Amino acid sequence: MNNSAAGSSGDKNWGLVLVVPACAVLFILFVVFTLATSDEPTVAQPLEPSWFTPTTARGEDLQNKVMVGSCYLCHAYWTGLPDPDVVRPQFAHSAIQLDHGANDRCYNCHLIQDRNKYTANDGSGIMHTNVEQLCARCHGLIYNDWVAGTHGVQRGQWMTPTAFERQNFKCTHCHDPHAPAFKFEKYTPPPVWPEQIERQRAEAPPPSEKTE
Amino acid sequence: MEKGQKPDRKLNRRDFIAGMAVTLAAAGAGAAALSPLIRAEEIPPLEDVLQKHYQRLTPEEKKAIFARLEKRILATHGVQATIRDPQPLENAHFAYALNIGRCIGCRKCVYACMKENNLSRDPQIQYIRVLKMKKQGHGIDLESAVHDYPQEEAGDKNYYYMPVQCQQCENPPCVKVCPVKATWREEDGIVVIDYNWCIGCRYCQAACPYHARRFNFAKPRVPGAELNPNMGYLSNRPRFMGVMEKCTFCLHRTRTGRYPACLEVCPTGARKFGDMSDPDSEIRRIVDKERVYVLKQDLGTVPRFYYVFAK
Asked: Which residues of chain B neighbour A44 with C-beta distances below 8 Å?
């Protein structure tokens, strides 16, 4: 203190000129910080419901389906027996794009006599609620997997697998029977990472083995 | 001091002002240095600090703790939550299978998990990380895999998409390294964390070969409207800042017989969950009959998460 007093005996007391404003600034900072820490409510970006809502691949498709109701509305009276050479269906069915591999005839699956039903191996009909039996005619292995539960979507209870507590989906909930390749295009955004570890080598060539 | 001035005065004006200035500066600097403490996002209440380890709690203590937590959740999020503590099932051994041939990388499981487990939205935390890697040439090559591909790149037929989450190892390295035993493996095979006991040292994060553990660097933020009120004490109750968390196979769901959230949301049916000790379960059938492998088998962690190659 003696030193500073001696040093400050000049024209101006530089120590004080620096220290007093600095301390004032610190004090103001402290007050501001203290006042600014009120309880702020949790504000965060909500997730979009479509990102986490369970859907099946054809959920919307089935909802917007054009052909509903009884096929007898037309097929009982106005339309005759089909021409077996016609691959592309006409009139009301012209929107159908058939892409089912070698299975390119309508009446492989649809029953000629009764259009509300599908064809079984013995020529009898399969009701729409049992559509998996139609698919099982060709895709037997996958049908076995589906029965055992290893193919397809399941929801609900795993522990008490009675028929009512387990939501099981049929083939046509996910596969369009006319174009059965699996399609699902509702993707969700990537994670938000700190900037340091953002994507660097997305398509980086694999190291050194590319010579062949 | 020069002669002629007042010699009896012990403290002159100049020294007084300087002394006051220095004192004030010291006080101001000290206050400024301590001000982050006032801004601390989370200071645990005394009850939380004095709480015992989960495995030593009696049922009555648990009940009191759950009631306290529910009250706090109502205050912070405005949601009446119910915290349960489902115990491990008798003779159950949970396992998970994921069909890489079917996964399209849509990442719906990631967001369903965030929703179900009340994961922090603002500093974003996700348990599941979907790796994308080329099919041709390298097969499952984690070195060339990408985990933050944009959403337009999902569903590409030339790539495998491999979601990685906690593998619930039978020989978990994360449990071995924990210095305070805040994480342990339950009877049914699920590795859990006591969020109140965790000290946040992150040893387990370093030890996990699957990068399955996440650390709350900031106070986790979940909007009250999105909070899942069905909570498990060891799984999805709101976490604190500075603790680890991880996938628990949604134990509040699976121990009551329901499927995990990531499985329910999967549109492809690539994910299968079940009890390995049940010979009729689908998971048992997959492990018996399909081509199954586990990630980083050579490390000897014995994961209960199987990856399947099948159409």
From this structure: 120-122, 221-223
Q: How distant is the Cα of A68 from the closest Cα of chain B, in angstroms?
A: 24
Over range B54-79, report the average pLDDT.
Answer: 92
Q: Which residues of B touch A16 (CB under 8 A)?
A: 17-18, 21
Average pLDDT estimate for A74-89: 71
pLDDT band at B298 (very low <50, low <70, confident <90, very high): very high
Residue B36 in any domain: the answer is no
- Report the distance separating Cα B141 and Cα B120, nearest Å: 30
Residue B230 domain boundaries: 94-309
Find residues 55-94 of chain B whose CB sits inside 8 Å of chain A: 76-77, 89
pLDDT for residue A157:
85
A124 domain-assigned: yes
- Answer yes or no: is B148 within a domain: yes
Contact B162, B146 (CB under 8 A): no
Mean pLDDT of chain B: 89
> Is A121 part of any domain?
yes
Pairing of strands B94-99, B305-309: parallel
Report CB contact under 8 Å: B269, A174: yes
Total length of chain A: 212
Test B223 with A23 for CB contact under 8 angstroms. no
Query: Which range marks the domain in which residue A138 is found?
Result: 49-174
| CATH number for B214 | 3.30.70.20
| Helical H segments across A149-207, by residue range | 171-174
Cα end-to-end span (Å), chain B: 97
Q: Report, in angstroms and rounded to the nearest whole number, the Rg of chain A calculated over CA atoms.
A: 36
With bands split at pLDDT 50, 70 and 90, how would you rate the model's confidence at A42? Answer: very low
Q: Is residue A117 part of a domain?
A: yes
Nearest by CB to residue B25, choosing from A22, A52, A191, is: A22
DSSP SS3 for B5: strand
Complex ipTM tops 0.90: no
Task: Assess whether pLDDT exceeds 60 at residue A209.
Answer: no
- Which of A31, A60, A159 has the most B C-beta neighbours within 10 Å, making it the best mutation to test the interface with B? A159
